[in-house]
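tool=predict chain=A
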Amino acid sequence: MKIDNPFDKTMEINRRSMDSITRDALINVTDTLDFCWAAAKAVFEEAATPEHALQICEMVMANIARNQDTARNRVRTGGESGARADTPQARPRAKQPPD
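tool=predict ok
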C-alpha cells in the first residue's frame, strides 16, 4: 500500500468519531489484504489479480480459524491432541535443564 492512500486519509478524517474496536478491525483487515496482495504478487508475479489476493485472504482466514480451533482443543483437553505428527507441537520436546 502506498504511504499516501485513501484508507489512511479516511481514517484520519474520522479518527475522533470512530471507536477503537472499529478502528482496530479496519486496520487489521486492511493490513491482512495488503499482505495477501503481496503474497499474490509473489506467487503469480505480473499475472496477479485482486481476485488472487481475495482467494489467498480466504485461505489465510480459514487457516487462522483452524489453528484457533486446534489451540482451543488443546486447552480444553489439557494436552496437545489434534497436533499432526509432522508439526513441531507433536514432536517430543527435549528436557529443559532446571533453573
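The chain has three helices and no strands. The mean pLDDT is 85.
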